[in-house]
Amino acid sequence: EKVSVIGLGYIGLPTAAVIASRGIEVVGVDVSENAVNTINQGKVHIVEPDLDMVVQAAVTLGKLRATLTPEAAQAFLIAVPTPFKEGKKPDLSYIHSSAKAIAPVLEKGNLVILESTSPVGATEQLASWLEELRPDLTFPQTAGEDADIQIAHCPERVLPGRVLEELVSNDRIIGGMTAKCSAKATELYKTFVRGECITTNSRTAEMAKLTENSFRDVNIAFANELSIICDKLKVNVWELIALANRHPRVNILSPGPGVGGHCIAVDPWFIVDSAPEEARMIRSAREINDGKPEYVLEQVKQAADQFKHPVIACLGLAFKADIDDLRESPALDITQKLSCSNVGKILAVEPNIKTLPQKLTDADVELVNLQQALEQANVLVILVDHKPFKALSSNDINTKVVVDTRGVFSRF
Ligand code: SAJ
């Protein structure tokens, strides 16, 4: 049996490696020559704990290889990005390109799984693209259970930083276009998933994934709104949340500098786009979370105003604690905007990276270590709760003005 994984990024590569580690032949396909070459050398082009070992083992055993163009296989698993375009509209162009890439090699009896987070209806759209491209084959939207090709949506739900563990242990939603599609997809996931595989239809599976991330976004927005209300009312929000969470049915999340990453800040917009009139709370949560960096910026400017020569150290650039991923990071955004607003000298501390991204070097931000930041800065801005920052003592900071967006120094 051979499985083809289309898109070898943060989801596709770990999934390909885990399936290969079960002894199944896996061919990974990516448009990036660099990714393909790196993987074929048994190395990885993305950072995720233990991924390098699993990929190396699979490549060495000859179970995993990467190519630029798809070849025939029994199952195709599509894990490509679904970003949004201007106007917060979902961009399905990578799914469309994947359809065009696999269509020529599709054979009767194949299974096609869409793993990419997608707006409701995207799996049906993928099926009709494939049907147009291969009129000689039959597809579930017209042939039902008798279709030559089975199609399902099985959204990924793994947490960056714990991908290899969660790939195996999380329950999986299997949204087949027919019951037969679900059964076939379940068979594939059962080869490596220890969690339960729960079947539904493709539209419900699409909406379930969007709902999970919107649930988290709405709850973070609640915490972020509370933090702004508490500043106004001179209440410590961290103490407040700790107290409220003592209630058996209250569990408030943590405020922060905004919501980053490429999932939670994106997926709720897919729901808003599908039901703009109805998705009022989901839209509002997005706006609250997107507005938080601007609020933090104002706080830092006020802190800097107390000094003749402000030196501002931004602690953390990643989108969350203890990872090196700077994509869609509010911390990065705040640091860059600070630098462009001429409030003072800007230092950045990010223990998980070695060089600053171009947009910060262009903005004259200097990458320093934590010690240097403590020596030079009079304003500290805690943007990420990385472990070394949590280990700081009050002696380290008591001569500084601190803007603590993560509550690192407010332990309740
Ligand atoms: N954040 C807060 N306060 C909190 C929790 C998170 O401000 O209390 C911020 C983080 O700092 C970060 C952002 O939210 O900037 C998102 O971080 P996260 O850890 O909540 O989630 P992601 O984006 O790393 O991964 C999410 C996960 N979804 C859920 O937990 C519902 C993961 O399971 C999904 O697979 C992933 O999105 C995805 O790919 O969709």
UniProtKB/TrEMBL annotation:
Domain of life: Bacteria
EC id: 1.1.1.336
Domain UDP-glucose/GDP-mannose dehydrogenase C-terminal residue range list: 313-411
Single annotated GO MF: UDP-N-acetyl-D-mannosamine dehydrogenase activity
Keyword Ligase set for record: no
InterPro entries found in the cross-reference section: 6-PGluconate_DH-like_C_sf, NAD(P)-bd_dom_sf, UDP-Glc/GDP-Man, UDP-Glc/GDP-Man_DH_C, UDP-Glc/GDP-Man_DH_C_sf, UDP-Glc/GDP-Man_DH_dimer, UDP-Glc/GDP-Man_DH_N, UDP_ManNAc/GlcNAc_DH
Biological process, per Gene Ontology: polysaccharide biosynthetic process
Assigned keywords, A-Z: NAD, Oxidoreductase
Family listed: Belongs to the UDP-glucose/GDP-mannose dehydrogenase family.
Name under which the protein is recorded: UDP-N-acetyl-D-mannosamine dehydrogenase
Species: Neptunicella marina
